[in-house]
Specification:
interleukin-33 binding, five-stranded mixed sheet, Immunoglobulin-like, binds 2-acetamido-2-deoxy-beta-D-glucopyranose, disordered N terminus, 35% strand, alpha+beta, glycoprotein, 5 domains, Interleukin 1 receptor like 1
Length: 533
C-alpha cells in the first residue's frame, strides 16, 4: 500500500514538472530558487547538460549554490543554459527540477531582456517585483515602465510592489524593477521585468482611516456603554480584501473572550465609487482597565494596512459641578451688578412706582402735622425773586396740589407777628422733613441763620427729621457754607434745580420733582394719585 502511494507520488511529480525560466542582464546579479517549497533534506545543483555539480560558495567564486538557491555574482553570457536542482527528501526520495537561464547582453537603451518570462500581472494595479524575495538585503532604487522611470501620484511604492491607482489600458506595458543587492560588501545591479495587463474591476488606494484621528482621546464614564466608530476608505469599488477592525492592546476584538466587546461592520460606496468600511466597537460597560488600554483601528486592503489609536479618559466629573458653580456664581454676580446699576439709575422711579402701587392706605400716625418745613433765604434783591416765586408758588403747586403733601412755609403758614422762635421750633418738630433751599443767599444772608440753626440742630442731633437740600443756583464750592450744611451735603448731596426758571407748567414727573418726591415721606390721607400726572 505504502509503495503504491510512493509510485503514484513520483508519477505525479514527473508529469507536473515544468521548466522555469529566468532572464538576466549581463553583469547583473542573478539568484535562482529551486521551485519546491516544502520541507527537504538537501538540494544539489548541476548543469543539466554537463552534469557538473555547482559547489557551495568559496572565496572568489562567481557561481555557487546554497540550499535552494543558485547564485551568479555577477552573470556572464556563458551562464545561459539549463540547470537542474535535485531535491533530497527524507525516506531517500529525490526529485529533479530543470530551470532555464538566459543572460542577455547589455545594450545601450535597453533596460530589460527582450524575452519576458515572468508571469504577467493583470487587473488591479498591483505589480510585484519578480524574484525580489531571492535577494536578501536588496533595495529597490527605481521602477520603469517601458524603460521610462515611473513617477507621479498614481503610483504608490511599497517594499516590493507598486500600485497603480485606477489602472486603465494606458497602463499596460513592461514594468521593470531595478534594485541593488549587496553581497559580502559588493553591490550588484539587479533588474526584473514583467508585463502588466489592466483588467480592472476595482482599483486600490492606500487604506486611509477617516476617523478616529490617531491618538484621539475619548471621554467616558465608568460603567457606561461606549461605541467607537472607525471609518476607512479602502479603494475604488468593492475590494476583495477589505478589513476594518478594532484591536484592544494589539489583540483583535474577535479573539478577546470578554463579552463586553463586540464589533459591527458595514460597507458602502461614496462618490466616484470610493469604497468605505465602517466598524463600530461596542463596549457594553467601561471598566477601569479600559482607561489604560489602547484601542486601535486597523484598516487593511491588498495594498497594506494603516492604524489609528484611541485611548479613553475619565470625564472630569469633579470639575463639572465646580464649573457649573462658578458659572452660576458669575451669573449671579452679573445679575446683582446689573440690578445695582439699574437700581442706581432708576432708583427714584422704582421707589415712586412702588409707592404708587403699594401705597399703604393707613400710614401710621406719627403725631406730625406737616410733611415738610421749608427753609429758604429771605431777601429783597432781584435774584431772590425767583426763590420767592419758587417757595410760594411752584413748591406748593407741585407738592401740595399735585402730590398731596402738606408744607409749612414761613411767611405763609407762620405769620411774622407770632413769637417767631418758638413758632418755628414747634413747626419744625411737627414736620417730617426739612426742605432747605440753597442759593448764593444761603451763604451770605444773615437772616437765614436762625431758622437753619434750629433745623440743623434737630436734624443732626435728634436725627428724626430728614433734610432735603434743593440747590436752586449753582453754588460751586460749598466751602463758605456752614459746617453743618456742608456735613449734610457730604452725606446725601443736593437736588439741583435745572429747569428753566419761569414760564411753563411744572410737572411732578420731571427729574427734579421725582427726586424731591423720592426724599419726601409717604403721603398721608392721600389724594395724590388722583391729582398726579
Ligand atoms: C535547455 O532545455 C531545453 C528543453 O527543456 C532545450 O530546448 C534547450 O536547447 C536547452 N538549452 C541548452 C543551452 O542546452
Ligand atoms: C537510503 O538509501 C541508502 C543507500 O542508498 C540506504 O543505506 C538507506 O537505508 C536508505 N534509507 C531508507 C530510509 O530507506
Ligand atoms: C531535465 O532536462 C534533461 C535534459 O534536457 C532531461 O533529460 C530531464 O528529463 C529533465 N528533467 C526534468 C525533471 O524535466
Ligand atoms: C502577457 O502579456 C502579453 C502582452 O499583453 C501577452 O502577449 C501574453 O500572452 C501574456 N502572457 C500570459 C501568460 O498571459
Ligand atoms: C544586511 O544589511 C545589514 C545592514 O543593513 C547588515 O548588517 C547585514 O550583514 C546584511 N546581510 C547580508 C546577508 O548581507
Ligand atoms: C548599476 O546600473 C547603473 C545604471 O543603471 C550603473 O550606473 C552602475 O554602474 C551599475 N552598477 C553596477 C555595480 O553594475
Ligand atoms: C499603548 O501604546 C503606547 C504607545 O503607543 C504604549 O507605550 C503602551 O504600552 C500601550 N499600552 C498597552 C496597554 O499596550
Amino acid at each position: 500500500m505504502w509503495c503504491v502511494h510512493l509510485i503514484f507520488l513520483s508519477a505525479f511529480f514527473l508529469v507536473s514538472m515544468t521548466s522555469e525560466s529566468f532572464d538576466a542582464m549581463e553583469g547583473d546579479a542573478l539568484v535562482i530558487k529551486c521551485p519546491p517549497p516544502s520541507s527537504y533534506v538537501r538540494v544539489t545543483w548541476y548543469h543539466t547538460e554537463t552534469k557538473k555539480i555547482i559547489p557551495a560558495e568559496e572565496e572568489g567564486s562567481r557561481t555557487f549554490s546554497l540550499k535552494r538557491l543558485l547564485w551568479f555574482l555577477p552573470t556572464s553570457r556563458e551562464d545561459s543554459g539549463n540547470y537542474t536542482c535535485v531535491v533530497h527528501y527524507s525516506n531517500n526520495i529525490t526529485k529533479e527540477f530543470n530551470v532555464s537561464v538566459q543572460v542577455h547582453p547589455y545594450k545601450q537603451g535597453i533596460c530589460f531582456p527582450s524575452q519576458i518570462r515572468y508571469p504577467n500581472d493583470t487587473g488591479r494595479g498591483k505589480i510585484i517585483c519578480p524574484t525580489f524575495d531571492n535577494y536578501k538585503n536588496a533595495t529597490i532604487v527605481q521602477w520603469y515602465k517601458d524603460c521610462k522611470p515611473l513617477q507621479g501620484e498614481r503610483y504608490f511604492k511599497r517594499d516590493k510592489y507598486i500600485f497603480i491607482n485606477n489602472p486603465g489600458k494606458e497602463d499596460d506595458g513592461y514594468y521593470t524593477c531595478q534594485f541593488i543587492y549587496t553581497h559580502n560588501g559588493n553591490a550588484f545591479n539587479v533588474s526584473a521585468t514583467r508585463i502588466f495587463v489592466s483588467n480592472a474591476k476595482y482599483s486600490l488606494l492606500p487604506p486611509q482611516i477617516l476617523f478616529p484621528k490617531q491618538n484621539d482621546v475619548t471621554e467616558v464614564d465608568l460603567g457606561a456603554a461606549l461605541s467607537l466608530k472607525c471609518q476607512a476608505r479602502l479603494g475604488i469599488k468593492k475590494q476583495p480584501i477589505a478589513v476594518v477592525t478594532w484591536d484592544v492592546n494589539n489583540s483583535p476584538v474577535k479573539k478577546l473572550d470578554f463579552s463586553r466587546f463586540h464589533e459591527e461592520t458595514l460597507s458602502f460606496e461614496g462618490h466616484d465609487h470610493e469604497y468605505y468600511r465602517e466598524t463600530t466597537l461596542h463596549i457594553t460597560e467601561i471598566k477601569k482597565e479600559d482607561l489604560q488600554a489602547n484601542f486601535t483601528c486597523v484598516a487593511v486592503n491588498e495594498m497594506g494596512n494603516t492604524k489609528a489609536k484611541v485611548t479613553l479618559q475619565l470625564k472630569a466629573q469633579l470639575d463639572h459641578p465646580r464649573v457649573l458653580m462658578i458659572i452660576g456664581f458669575l451669573v449671579l454676580l452679573i445679575i446683582i451688578a446689573v440690578s445695582v446699576v439699574l437700581y442706581q439709575s432708576f432708583r427714584v422711579d422704582i421707589v415712586l412706582l412702588y409707592r404708587e402701587i403699594f401705597q399703604p392706605y393707613s400710614v401710621k400716625d406719627d403725631g406730625k402735622i406737616y410733611d415738610a418745613y421749608v427753609i429758604y433765604p429771605k431777601s429783597h434783591t432781584s435774584e431772590a425773586n425767583f426763590v420767592g416765586y419758587f417757595v410760594y408758588h411752584i413748591l406748593p403747586d407741585v407738592l401740595e396740589n399735585e402730590c398731596g403733601y402738606k408744607l409749612c412755609i414761613y411767611g405763609r403758614d407762620i405769620c411774622p407777628g407770632e413769637d417767631t422762635a418758638s413758632a418755628i421750633e414747634k413747626r419744625i418738630q411737627k414736620s417730617r422733613r426739612l426742605i432747605i433751599i440753597l442759593t448764593h443767599q444761603s451763604i451770605n444772608c444773615e437772616d437765614l441763620a436762625y431758622d437753619q440753626h434750629i433745623a440743623l440742630y434737630n436734624a443732626l442731633i435728634q436725627n428724626d427729621t430728614k433734610v432735603i437740600l434743593l440747590e436752586m443756583e449753582i453754588i460751586g464750592t460749598y466751602e463758605k457754607l456752614q459746617e453743618s450744611l456742608r456735613y449734610i451735603i457730604k452725606q446725601q448731596g443736593t437736588i439741583k434745580w435745572k429747569e428753566p426758571p419761569t414760564g411753563h407748567q411744572q410737572s411732578s414727573n420731571s427729574k427734579f420733582w421725582k427726586h424731591v418726591r423720592y426724599h419726601m415721606p409717604l403721603t398721608h390721607k392721600t389724594s395724590y394719585s388722583a391729582n398726579a400726572g
